[in-house]
Automatic annotation (TrEMBL):
This is 3-methyladenine-DNA glycosylase I. Keywords: Metal-binding, Zinc. The keyword Transmembrane does not apply. InterPro entries: Adenine_glyco, DNA-3mA_glycosylase, DNA_glycosylase. The lineage of its organism: Bacteria, Bacillati, Actinomycetota, Actinomycetes, Micrococcales. Zn(2+) binds at H190. It comes from Kineosphaera limosa NBRC 100340. Signal peptide: none annotated. The keyword Calcium does not apply. GO terms for molecular function: DNA-3-methyladenine glycosylase activity; metal ion binding.
Length: 205
């Protein structure tokens, strides 16, 4: 792939397959697969947005690789991240989840996920979670040349975090919300030299 002028090889690595990726997605096969097939692609359904919001909250303070490796366990433990089912969890479910080695056993995050499921269900009385989150799509997306150019938050993520908290969501700070926006395609923070830049179809290359 032809690299844009000014993109250093230290930030974009050319793989054995001839495709350019950021360093974080260039070595670990699991992260590479996630980067190549899922990260930054549009997610517009309620369950999909709820799952990714939940995983981003659990990731706080941990590496994304840790969460990704436990993702099958999370999906099993939270019944496919079905908001209706998770919203009905009580103390016995919390105890079950705290004993599940397949997930991150953090009581505050588990309880926040249950509360967020209830908030997700409540959002249906208005526009719904997915529509709400996508309504904060900015007019422009970042065009990072190097990793240091990728922001950790934005005015839109600050505003969305505030709105989500107002509606009863927890663990939804501006940084976590911006990571969600990156993950589901609301913004495109693929480095300009990456083979995935512009692949979502939401933003031009």
């Amino acid at each position: 792939m032809t690299q844009d002028v000014g993109v250093p090889q230290a930030d974009v690595v050319l793989g054995a397959d001839g495709l350019a990726r950021p360093v974080w997605a260039s070595k670990d096969p699991l992260l590479r697969e996630y980067y190549d097939t899922e990260w930054g692609m549009p997610v517009r359904d309620e369950r999909g947005v709820f799952e990714r919001l939940s995983l981003e909250a659990f990731q706080s303070g941990l590496s994304w690789a840790t969460i990704l490796r436990k993702r099958p366990g999370f999906r099993a433990a939270f019944e496919g991240f079905d908001p209706d089912r998770v919203a009905g969890y009580g103390e016995s479910a919390v105890a079950r989840l705290m004993g599940d080695a397949g997930i991150v056993r953090n009581r505050r995050k588990i309880e926040a996920t249950i509360g967020n499921a209830r908030a997700t269900v409540a959002c249906r009385d208005r526009e719904g979670l997915a529509t709400l989150v996508w309504s904060f799509q900015p007019e422009q997306t970042p065009r990072p040349q190097v990793a240091a150019d990728v922001p950790s938050s934005s005015p839109e993520s600050v505003a969305l975090a505030k709105e989500l908290k107002r509606r009863g969501f927890a663990f939804v700070g501006p940084t976590t919300v911006f990571a969600l926006m990156e993950a589901i395609g609301i913004v495109d923070t693929h480095l300009v030299g990456s083979h995935r830049r512009g692949s979502s179809g939401v933003w031009p290359h």
